[in-house]
Hints:
The chain has helices at 9-18, 23-34, 38-49, 56-83, 95-126, 137-145, 150-154. By secondary structure, it is mostly helical. It is globular, with a radius of gyration of 17 Å.
Amino acid sequence: MAEVNSSHALWDFALAFYAQQQVAEACVRLQDEYKVNVCLLIAMCWLDARQHHLADAEFLTLQNYISGWTQEIVEPLRLLRRRLKLPFENLSQDATQMELRNTLKQAELLAERKLLIEIERWLSVNSPATGAAAHDKNVERYVTELKAPKDLVALISLPV
């Protein structure tokens, strides 16, 4: 089995990638409108940049591997963080609510970081690099199955 890279290259890539103009907005739209897992999408972009193509079976296994953490940890944190943007029932929206929202935002970011680290770990063990593949092959497969429009996907195809 391959040794896990302690540098967390995928996390570093994700930070640089998400900081690009239009990428964050496109990722949020893909997430909200097409149910794209942004961490998985970023991992697919990372693999494409490294010219590492996942076989269909590997891709499905990876999706299954991360589904529990995504559904039980990341998504509930996101839902709560977003809910705290608005007043809650008959309670006033105040600094304490905003502090709680900011705390949840940090927790969500940590949960996403763990998810990306786990994706990288899984890839290093289960899908070692095997050579060149067509650019955007992983991203294209993922967003096509979710029926995301090509013009929106093009916004995330910017070079890092």
